[in-house]
Amino acid sequence: GAGVSQSPSNKVTEKGKDVELRCDPISGHTALYWYRQSLGQGLEFLIYFQGNSAPDKSGLPSDRFSAERTGGSVSTLTIQRTQQEDSAVYLCASSLQSGRAYEQYFGPGTRLTVT
Amino acid sequence: DAKTTQPNSMESNEEEPVHLPCNHSTISGTDYIHWYRQLPSQGPEYVIHGLTSNVNNRMASLAIAEDRKSSTLILHRATLRDAAVYYCITSGTYKYIFGTGTRLKVLA
């Protein structure tokens, strides 16, 4: 079956521009997660959705970052006024339900480069 | 969530077993132990998870110490396709804290 997909796969943008990153989770998965991975680093948790609501936004680095999920499916991560330190690979994952026992399925990521 | 400690890198010969260790001395009683791996230019991939008992699946085995303060991921016969960064995560919730993992190099 189809896995988690993300678009675009690569995005180059100028400092100060806004960007939108999209995630299509596995059909039927109620939980969705965004992570960020800087070069040579582990993954950094950003935000978690259960259905369309985001009970945990604690990982968003600043108020320039926001995310939404509609229809319990597609999610968009928006970064406003991008900065060079936002350059990273943004990964989305989904799981059947939230909780410590459910495996997370990851997409291939969007590589964001801010010039 | 408990912090995990893994070696930065390991090497193995092809077709030989690999034992990847992880220390999680501050794990709480309800935390699961998860292992993911990340191949170059890909997102992490689930490998295995467990709570107290050893676990086996088609990819690997997970051996959990009796006191749960450490665990070992066992790849029974390493192949070149197993070269990846392996992450050990302990979590009581959905929030995974990924460290820098163990980079496994498989030698032909």
Description:
The complex is a heterodimer of chains A (115) and B (108). Chain A is mainly beta and 115 residues long. Chain A contains no helices and eleven strands. In chain A, strands 2, 4, 5, 6, 9, 10 and 11 form a seven-stranded mixed sheet that branches. Chain A has a four-stranded antiparallel sheet with strand order 1-3-8-7, with no helix packed on it. Chain A is globular and about 40 Å long. In chain A, 34% of the residues are buried. In chain B, the strands form two sheets. A five-stranded mixed sheet of chain B has the order 1-9-8-3-4, with no helix packed on it. A four-stranded antiparallel sheet of chain B has the order 2-7-6-5, with no helix packed on it. Chain B has strands spanning 9-13, 18-23, 32-38, 45-50, 55-56, 61-64, 70-75, 84-91, 102-107. Chain B is 0% helix and 46% strand. Chain B is built from no helices and nine strands. Chain B is globular, with a radius of gyration of 13 Å. With 108 residues, chain B is mainly beta. The interface between A and B is medium-sized, with 27 and 24 residues.
